[in-house]
Please model this.
Amino acid sequence: MDDDLSTDQQVLVDAAARFAEDTFPITKLRERAFDDDAFAAAYRRQAGELGWFSLVVPEEHGGGSVSGNGALDAALVAYTRGRLLQPVGFVGANVVAHAIATSGTGPDGGAQRERALAALMAGDAPGAWVVGNLSGAPALDGAVDATPNRDGPDGDGWSLSGTAVMVEDADATAWLLVAAATPEGPAQLLVAPGTAGVSFAPVDGLDLSRRYADVTFTGAAIPASALVGAIGDRAFGERLLALASTLTVAECVGAMHQELEMTVDYAKQRIAFGRPIGSFQAIKHLLADTSTMLEVSKAVALAAASQVGDDDPHAAQAASQAKAFVADAAMDQAQACFQVFGGISFTWEHDQHLFFRRITTGAEQFGDAAWHREHVCVLAGIGRVA
Model:
């Protein structure tokens, strides 16, 4: 995926890799360093200084990309993050920042950008897109119910109720972009840190580098100025889903790349019956198949990122196609690598399971393969998501 990059893109990828290797090597992952709030905050701010959370923000709002295609550049960073198993809610923060920067244009759009966008881009606060459960279908029509509240903070607004489970990087310091169901249709509502009526219950996830929480809204009153975009604008939600899916896919492909490299190196070094196991035809065929899956996954990930960044009219389809293909291919590759490693890969001391955790989580986030295959049909007008 890092082939044929421009000079500026190569600098971006190299800087991301150096930061990742110096700040959060795999030993830090095993130590669960990101569980410490101080470490997490420092890591997030350093990532913000590198521009990780501003690539999909237009230049006029303080962002900018190295190639002119922000989604593509962000996907390259995501790929590097997946390859080196980096923490922090990279996808959620970018989705929230992009939403505010491009669609926070209502009466309070400037204030949204001034208050939330600056903090997100700098890494001073996490961002989380509350769009539904970790697995299953993204709730584009509303993960949480929003009812009109005439007694709200500014005399108008909504009252939020409901629970979204396994939301990445959601805590009391986070800016939440909530996919809400209003009587007039779906809406994206920005909830500020410290809002009353919002509670967080930390939960363990399969990926050891991620932080998750169940987020519960119990009559949380938010002002009308919290609206991002327009009520009933499903296309806006689709655009955010395409970006989230594309960046998640890129992280999965990065993990696939590193996992296959580890497996090939092992096949060259492991001796059985007096020969490296990589010389056996069965192993050769298995590794050839997984290599092909990786290369195709890289291609579809790059194509989807390019289309999302170019606002291509078929970007949503490309993103769902990439998510569906890579989710399946990544799981198949992980199982193949387990077979090559044998029993050693099932031990805690081996690194294989750490990449398997990242791949498995990424395959489910923002819709699994089955949901995205159906979604492609829905976008083409020939199906309906249950």
In short: Strands lie at 127-130, 144-148, 157-168, 175-182, 185-191, 198-203, 212-223, 227-228, 271-272, 275-276.
